[in-house]
Amino acid sequence: MSTKYKATCKCGATVNVPYSDSENFYEWLKGHNECLKHPPKREWVGLNWDDLPEIYVGDTAFLHGAKWAEAKLKEKNT
Predict the structure, then answer these.
(1) Phi-psi map region of 12: left, alpha, beta (phi>0 left; psi -120 to 50 alpha)
(2) For FRET with 6, which of 31, 35, 41, 50 sits at 20 to 30 Å CA-CA?
(3) Single pTM value for the model
(4) Whose CA is closest to 13, among 30, 32, 27, 26?
(5) Domain map of the chain by residue range?
(6) CB 44 within 8 A of CB 77
């Protein structure tokens, strides 16, 4: 079991303090509250024809399903 608070923020800042120094840890958390609350934004990258396995090229049912799945994932992740 660890005897230290250890954390790394999305901005790259790290903290590594003994449990006996919890005040410093909570101060660090307060200072990085916004970084920790909001994950970094990433640009949506959809599927392209190179991602399609050769055996599905003429399968319209598969293509419709892939387009539906891509739209759902984009809706949930952007």
Answers:
(1) left
(2) 41
(3) 0.46
(4) 32
(5) 4-37, 42-78
(6) yes
Total length of the chain: 78
CA 10, CA 36: separation in Å to the nearest integer?
7
Q: Which structure tokens are listed for 65? A: 């399903």
User: Per-block average pLDDT, block size 10, for the chain (78 residues)?
Assistant: 71 77 80 73 82 89 92 86
Strand spans (E) along 1-78: 4-8, 14-18
Q: Which amino acid is at 44?
A: W
Q: How is residue 39 written in tokens? A: 């994950």
CA angle, corner 17, sides to 16 and 20, nearest 5? 160
Q: Which residue has the tokens 């990433």?
A: 42
